Amino acid sequence: MNVDSYWYWLIVAAGLAAAELLVPGVFLVWVALAAAITGLVTLAIEPPLAVQLLIFAGAAVATTLAGRRWYSVNHIPSADPLLNDRAGRLVGETVELTKAIVNGRGRARVGDSEWNVRGPDAPLGACMRVVGTEDGALVVRPVSALSSSE
């Protein structure tokens, strides 16, 4: 590569940053930063291509890990924290038992699907209110019991 090879790295960095804006995934930005670092190192010391590729690979790993750590420490609040928690979204809903709750376990219809439920023993067809989730099952209580305690 010629002396101006740092421009290639900076162009790659700009292209990856633009791609991050078009297809947000919070990943390409770290690779773009690695390309920019490689471009600046190439500008400063003009290493051969093999060394540039090693610098890029190392910088990509380092920036990605640093970015991941930054996001784990600086959690970004969501406007919809239950977006990917389908069971959590059901808390407060009323469901009908499709299998009686016996020994604390049964099944209930939720929309067009059925879910495992846990709660006090109740007969088939009983209306229950979802009060929480536990190990992928809905925790339910009888609707009448909730009305009298509220």
Report on the architecture of this protein.
Residues 88-142 form the NfeD-like C-terminal domain. With 150 residues, the chain is α+β, with helices and mostly antiparallel strands. It folds into two domains: 5-73, no CATH class; 86-149, Nucleic acid-binding proteins (OB fold (Dihydrolipoamide Acetyltransferase, E2P)), CATH 2.40.50.140. The chain is built from five helices and five strands, in the order H-H-H-H-E-E-E-E-E-H. The protein has helices at 5-22, 28-45, 49-73, 86-89, 143-149, and strands at 94-102, 105-110, 113-118, 127-134, 137-142. Strands 1-2-3-5-4 form a five-stranded mixed beta barrel. A hairpin with a 2-residue loop joins strand 2 (105-110) and strand 3 (113-118). Helix 2 crosses helix 3 (49-73). The chain is rod-shaped, with a radius of gyration of 27 Å. The protein starts with a helix and ends with a helix.
